[in-house]
Design a protein that fits this description.
By secondary structure, this protein is an alpha/beta fold. It has a single domain, classed as Response regulator (Rossmann fold), CATH 3.40.50. The protein is 46% helix and 18% strand. It has 5 helices and 5 strands; from the N terminus they run E-H-E-H-E-H-E-H-E-H.
Length: 136
């Protein structure tokens, strides 16, 4: 089976490196620390016919927060004719666990999972299994 392709978006470069290292045996990971660059990467890979299977998105980032970036990604998919049933899986990451961000992630952005950063190293792989991204 081909490894799934993940886009990791977090303004903390160390966190991106940690997640890329942790997931490299399970997925092909591309990371960025900038929401605008994430949108460019997302659209480029989609138009090349090699879309991301999942996006791991930090919520709090400078310039564009994770919610805004995800809304733009969903818009890019719609404008490129992606069937919502084949949309990327979304895992929202944050240092916070407040009800507002959790609700916004799931109901407004169609998140498939929500992982507090403090638990990411231990639980992210299991969440990716649960949403059907990895099998290992």
């Amino acid at each position: 089976m081909t490894k799934p392709k993940l886009l990791i978006v977090d303004d903390d470069e160390r966190f991106c490196l940690l997640m890329t290292t942790r997931l490299k045996t399970h997925a092909n990971c591309i990371s960025t620390t900038d929401g605008k660059e994430a949108l460019l990467l997302f659209e480029h890979h989609l138009r090349e016919g090699q879309p991301f299977h999942a996006v791991l998105m930090d919520i709090e980032m400078p310039d564009m927060d994770g919610h805004q970036v995800v809304q733009q990604m969903r818009k890019i998919e719609r404008s490129n004719g992606v069937d919502p049933l084949h949309s990327f899986k979304l895992v929202m990451l944050t240092a916070h666990s407040d009800v507002k961000n959790v609700s916004k992630s799931f109901f407004r952005n169609g998140a498939d999972a929500y992982v507090p950063k403090a638990e990411a190293d231990s639980s992210l792989l299991e969440k990716l299994r649960e949403i059907g991204i990895t099998t290992q």
